[in-house]
Structure formats: structure tokens, C-alpha cells
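Annual report, structural modelling task.

Input specification for the copper (II) ion complex:
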Amino acid sequence: MKKLFAVLATVASLFVAGNTFAADIEIKDAWAKASIGQVRNGAAFLTVVNHGMADRITGVRSDLADKTELHTHIMENNVMKMRQVDGGVDVPMYGEVLFKPGSYHVMLIGLKKPLAEGEMVNVTLEFEKAGDVPVMVNVLDPMAKGMTKMDHGTMDHGNMDHGDMKH
Ligand SMILES: [Cu+2]
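The model returned the following structure:
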């Protein structure tokens, strides 16, 4: 009986300790581009919906690649460049943050194996308040998302050489 009490107390404390916050964060439409050929980098996109108080995404991790980073695109001398996000991504109270091509994205650098169309992969977003939020990511053919030729020609991560980029 004592043991049962201990278990119940642990369960109760887990709820109080922060699991309730995670319920405020909803992740929608998570998808990643299927790998093309021998390309070793990938990118994942998603929508973060916050049903509660302001929070911040402080990091991301996965077992999919050597490095998993939060990235964004910036304009520098009229050239679109991507780089690692500095200081996290703010998620406003009752707000949404879009991770999409040409903007915020989860960067997978050095994929351990190619992302195959139709498979589901996992990444974990790390929130300041909500803690770890696991995300199921659908791997899709990029064309299925209606990406334009321009996205492919100039901004497709697969074709970008990360080695040249300053972080
Ligand atoms: Cu990137």
C-alpha cells in the first residue's frame, strides 16, 4: 500500500512539475522534404500553436542527423541566406509560429540515412516552459507541398552547401 502511495505521489508531481504546460503547445502539419539522391542535409517544417502563455523554442534535437538545429533565412546584401537561430524562437501567448520554406526550419545536417517519402520520423522541440515536445514528421515529396521552381533552384536546402555558411 505504501508503494502505491509513492507511485501516485510521483504521478501527481509529474503533472505539477510541468507536463500540464506541454498541453498548451500544439504542433500541426509537421513535414520534411524527402531526400533527393545523395544529399546529406534535410529540413523539416511545422506550425506551432500556443494555447497558453508566451513560451520560447530554445532548441531541437533528433537521432536523424549528426546535427539538428533551428534555422532561419535572412536577407544579406539582397541574398537569401540561412543561419542558425540566435536566442531561440519566441512563441507568443495564444499565437502561432510557422516553420516553412524560406523562413524558420528544423535543419538536419548530416542525415544518417536519406529521408524516404511516406515515412514518419521524430524530432523533439525544446521549449523554455513546456519542456520537450515530441513531433511526428511526415516525409513528403517537396512537390506535393506546392513548392515553386524558385524554392528549388535557389533555396532548396538539399542543394545548399552548409560548409560555406557562417553560423
Ligand atoms: Cu537551414
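The domain at 24-159 is CATH 2.60.40.1890 (Immunoglobulin-like).
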